[in-house]
Design a protein that fits this description.
With 314 residues, the chain is α/β, with parallel strands linked by helices. It is 34% helix and 22% strand. It has one domain: Rossmann fold (3-Layer(aba) Sandwich). α4 links the parallel β5 and β6. The chain starts with a helix and ends with a strand. The N terminus is likely disordered. It comes from Carassius auratus (Goldfish).
């Protein structure tokens, strides 16, 4: 019996990045919110006013989380109530204005709630992918510091910063996954805007808030591809780990190799393990069930779509 308890304790310590977060047992039923965004103007399948690409939902579910969609047309009071019921937030990729959109308005509300919560030891993680990465830079710096890069559809290896492989994000990745990420063209890039190292280094807020874990270059400009906050469980990647296992358009930059899929899983596993350190919960089972993504049906958009399936919301 003693041995079993010891094994459980060691495993919990293995997952916990911060000692304070290990004071209580891990939440093995994490629910992560994914923020919806305004529909694309040229989407012939669009319904309602907003969407979430299903690949982000599958990405989190593949690592043991459930998902709640966060609508963009709710009140601040409703968002605060939802914040206190979920265990983490994912800001997905897409194509909206990261200064003036409803996506930005809601992201700012949750970002500020997360900062306040973490400041009082209420561990709440945030993950940003592509547009989500860019959104986090704006929320932290209060400026749009992005610059154009030639990275619209290309797969790249990551250039790790010194010590980055021992970061919270990467330190539990298997050695073969880290090697693949650094040597193979397996990180999918589908963005026209990036945070250059030059702009990051010249902005005190960003430089003191985020640690650069990896960089890339388009041949002319060096830009940040992975970062994590120093004092908060906030993480951001400019690349798309969810695409390799779950998006199937035949396009440059799309990679379905075993190493790419393995890297995608460990990325999802890491963020879900972070959400397990949060103990927010809904007031009842019926309330929880009302919010879950299972209440919605994804729309199949065709194999020639950049998003194979979307969830749409009013």
């Amino acid at each position: 019996m003693y041995y079993q308890v010891l094994v459980i304790a060691v495993f919990a310590a293995f997952l916990c990045g911060f000692p304070a977060s290990c004071a209580r047992s891990l939440n093995d039923r994490p629910i992560i919110g994914i923020l919806a965004q305004e529909n694309l103007e040229d989407d012939p399948h669009a319904q309602g006013t907003s969407y979430i690409a299903a690949s982000y939902v599958k990405h989190l579910e593949s690592a043991g989380a459930r998902v709640v969609p966060i609508h963009i047309n709710r009140t601040e009071e409703e968002y605060e109530k939802l914040f206190n019921a979920i265990n983490g937030l994912l800001l997905p990729g897409g194509d909206v204005d990261i200064v003036k959109s409803q996506f930005t308005r809601v992201a700012k509300i949750f970002y500020e709630l997360a900062v306040k919560a973490n400041d009082v030891s209420d561990y709440f993680p945030i993950w940003g992918t592509c547009q989500g990465f860019q959104q986090l830079t704006v929320l932290t710096s209060n400026k749009n510091l992005l610059t154009l890069t030639d990275t619209k559809a290309v797969a790249l290896p990551l250039t790790f910063s010194p010590g980055a492989q021992k970061s919270r994000l990467f330190k539990k990745f298997p050695k073969d996954v880290l090697q693949s990420l650094s040597e193979e063209n397996i990180t999918s890039n589908f963005h026209s805007w990036s945070l250059s190292m030059q702009n990051y280094s010249s902005n005190a807020k960003l430089k003191h808030f985020y640690r650069v874990l990896t960089t890339n270059t388009d041949g002319k400009k060096e830009f940040i591809s992975t970062m994590e906050a120093y004092q908060y469980p906030f993480y951001a990647v400019q690349w798309h780990p969810e695409k390799s296992p779950f998006e199937w358009i035949e396009k440059d930059g799309m990679v379905h190799t075993l190493s790419a899929i393995k890297a995608a899983f460990y990325t999802a596993h890491f963020f879900v393990s972070e959400a397990m350190k949060n103990h927010h919960r809904f007031s009842s089972q019926s309330e929880e069930e009302k919010y879950l993504i299972y209440n919605y049906q994804p729309v199949f958009k065709g194999t020639n779509s950049i998003f194979l399936q979307n969830y749409y919301f009013d």
